[in-house]
Design goal:
- Strand 4 and strand 5 form a beta hairpin.
- The protein contains 2 helices and 12 strands; from the N terminus they run H-E-E-H-E-E-E-E-E-E-E-E-E-E.
- The termini are far apart.
- The strands form 3 sheets. Strands 2-3-4-5-6-7-8-11 form an 8-stranded antiparallel β-barrel. A two-stranded antiparallel sheet has the order 1-12. Strands 9-10 form a two-stranded antiparallel ribbon.
- It folds into 2 domains: about 30 residues; about 200 residues, Porin, CATH 2.40.160.20.
- Helix content is about 10%, strand content about 55%.
- With about 240 residues, the protein is mainly β.
- The protein is elongated, with a radius of gyration of 23 Å.
Length: about 240
């Protein structure tokens, strides 16, 4: 497809999406909730530029309000690590995914058009990545120094479950900001070939079985549908 035609198609697609969102908001009725896919980007990775500049992580999430309290969610991300130390050079890169559900603990009685959340949830996480190390040197006064070692590039995969808790607020119509904490419990990792991963994408430090990670996200919900929620009496 020619470049100009692709740009034109994208322009029309975004225009149609914006028109659909506007129509949903204009025709929103009392007692109805608006829902649609909510796309989030994790801003916490920007902090790595200061406290872990050898590692870059990019994470997006998509969730959807299946019911007023139930949000299926998928997180997708990519990580790249490049480290140079006095006794080794290390590289690693790979992707990760987390799939699960969040449950909103808040209720606003009859204020069904309020979308703030305090939630808990769970995820199944997995990562496919590779790692390698070169210029490995080991000083030893008895046997003599060893240098020039390497661990060839090899593929790995890891699997874990995560317990999640967090909050999210609607700062503008359909725009959200929030934070969440993940407690990750790893139950399987493929062969390390003598070196634990510096950091498993989406999980954390490769030498640990249990890690705690944090994210701070900004989100946009595409309002595509209205539905009538079920009010649960007595739920606060």
């Amino acid at each position: 497809m020619p470049t100009w035609r692709m740009k034109k198609t994208l322009k029309y697609s975004f225009s149609l999406l914006a028109l659909l969102a506007l129509m949903v908001q204009l025709y929103a009725q009392d007692g109805m909730r608006v829902r649609g896919p909510r796309i989030s980007y994790d801003l916490a990775s920007l902090a790595l530029l200061y406290y872990d500049p050898d590692r870059m992580v990019y994470t997006i999430s998509v969730d959807y309000e299946m019911k007023q309290d139930l949000y299926p969610v998928i997180d997708l991300g990519y990580q790249h690590v490049k480290i140079s130390r006095d006794n080794y050079d290390y590289k690693s890169s790979g992707m990760f995914a987390r799939i699960g559900t969040d449950v909103n603990l808040l209720n606003y009685d009859k204020q069904v058009d309020v979308y703030e959340m305090m939630y808990v949830g769970g995820r199944y996480g997995f990562s496919l990545f590779n790692q390698q190390a070169e210029n490995i040197s080991v000083p030893d006064e008895y046997w003599g120094d060893f240098s020039g070692g390497q661990i060839e590039k090899h593929k790995m995969h890891a699997h874990w479950i995560s317990l999640v808790g967090g909050m999210r607020a609607e700062v503008f119509r359909n725009f959200f900001m929030g934070w969440s904490v993940f407690m990750n419990i790893r139950f399987y990792t493929s062969g390390t070939m003598g070196m634990d991963p510096y950091n498993i994408p989406g999980f954390g430090t490769g030498a640990n079985r249990v890690t705690v990670t944090f994210n701070y996200s900004i989100s946009y919900r595409i309002p595509m549908q209205q539905y009538t929620p079920i009010i649960k009496a007595g739920k606060k």
